[in-house]
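Case study 2.
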Amino acid sequence: MSLHTALAPFARIDLLEGPTPLHRAKRLEQVLGLSGINLYLKRDDHTPLGGGGNKLRKLEFLLGTALGNGVDTVVTIGGVQSNHARLTAAACARLGLACELVLGRAVDKAGTDYDLNGNVLLDQLFGARLQVLDKGMNTLAHAEARATELRAAGHTVLVLPTGGSTPLGSLGYARCAAEIIEQEQVLGLTFKHVFVPNGSAGTHAGLAAGFEVAGRGAATVKSWSVLADEATALERTLQLTHDALALLGSPAQLKATDILIDGRQLGEGYGQPTQAMQEAVRLLARTEGLLVDPVYSGKALAGLLADLKQGRYAAGDNLLFIMTGGTPGLYAYRETFQDA
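Prediction:
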């Protein structure tokens, strides 16, 4: 069974409006002194809805199913500067659904920039109802409680977890794997590895499931953990990959060694800036004129740059880094970058 055939039964609403483009990072290759290693960027930040970002791929499946079930209100959770929350609000605005966001203080950070700018400002512009909880409060429990109130008032409610990273949501990145394979055929090349950040695990899990079903193997994908320690991220990603494979009707039984995760870019924790991240963000901006966010892709790019400097790849290798969006978050980290 082909990957396209496996995905066909699932409801999906088009939020991306076509494949996201690939960009050969020639100037970055030159500055890094790469000899024969071809570095491509997949612009999942380059999507027309809501400021762009990878969560739209998950929302295509989650909201496609929701519309079929008559949902009129979506409640989701995340950190104060959640990209998933922003894109859920934007997608709901497009689809005519009410949206409520329950945001928690997952990062030990506050102030005008963090609390009111970046994604928070956009959440409000998209018309979402925001509830920001104090540090340590359970966002999912509050979201479920709010959903109960809304259902009692006659609404049909969908509650989405952090990042939209459910088995169904992960299919958005299984579909992305099929998209990448089609782009490879057009370019006449094959990517040795596809690189992503790993937060709530859905992006890595979906890609791993997609490449496994396509016969390329889950280990085509490598990620850098930005939310949890390496062991926790591995356990979560492996389980979510298995669950996505089950949805796709695949009998594949993956081992932990099939899921490639590096935890060395996490730093002091989720959302906490690192020197390597700052250097990676500036390097891409100053060589390619492109932006990555400080929480997800910035740390993953730092990991890829470290691998390249350590000589992990050879001449002739084609490598693909997926830019997952989240650039509105740069405005929430003004003090991290402004004095550079």
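Residues 3-53+166-337 form a domain with the Rossmann fold fold (CATH 3.40.50.1100).
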